[in-house]
Amino acid sequence: MAVVGYRRVSTIDQSLERQDLGEVEKVFEEKVSGASASDRPVLQEMIGWVRQGDLVVVHSIDRLARNLQDLLSIVTTLNNKGVSIRFIKDNLTFPPEGNDGAAKLYLSILGAVAEFERAIIRQRQAEGIAKAKAAGVYKGRKATIDKDRIYALREEGYSTYKIAEMMGISRMSVHRALNTK
């Protein structure tokens, strides 16, 4: 039996350190939005790696999934593989053999509460942005792509594919930058 940890934060700037998992043999970590389980390669790698009898340890339910459908799907997938999952902050463990109605109900309630919390946070954020825009103080998100460098590389004759590769961004990002000149 292996004790496996999974830690996730939403952005590169955030730290994984606050998610103490205790003693684990292997940790899977990623810095990516939790919006969709299918868009998280490290989560998918972890699900593929674990074996029957293993235990997956996660700091809290919201680190594993942002919506109820993904949460139930991930837990069910792990349980179907014979893998238990423990949420430290919530003090809950869902073993494969304990996949009864009461456990599913409890998990569903907690998942729904987490999803509701996320929706409220997004609503408050949108309200704050609307007020800041109305007051003329909203500047928006800082640009993460250096458009001047894209223009310069294009002038040097590089293809959009090569520019994207050199800058570590998608070709669509290069095209968008070139079309806004």
TrEMBL record:
What's the domain of life for this entry?
Bacteria
Q: Per its UniProt record, what InterPro entries does this chain match? A: Homeodomain-like_sf, Recombinase_CS, Resolv_N, Resolvase-like_N_sf, Resolvase_HTH_dom, SSR_resolvase
Q: What family is this protein classified in?
A: Belongs to the site-specific recombinase resolvase family.
**Xref: SUPFAM superfamilies:** Homeodomain-like, Resolvase-like
Q: Which UniProt keywords apply?
A: DNA integration, DNA recombination, DNA-binding
Which Gene3D superfamilies does UniProt cross-reference here?
Answer: Homeodomain-like, Resolvase, N-terminal catalytic domain
- Protein name per UniProt: Recombinase family protein
- Residue spans making up a coiled coil are none
> What species was this sequence derived from?
Paragemmobacter amnigenus
Matching Pfam families, A to Z?
HTH_7, Resolvase
Residues in Resolvase/invertase-type recombinase catalytic domain copies: 2-136
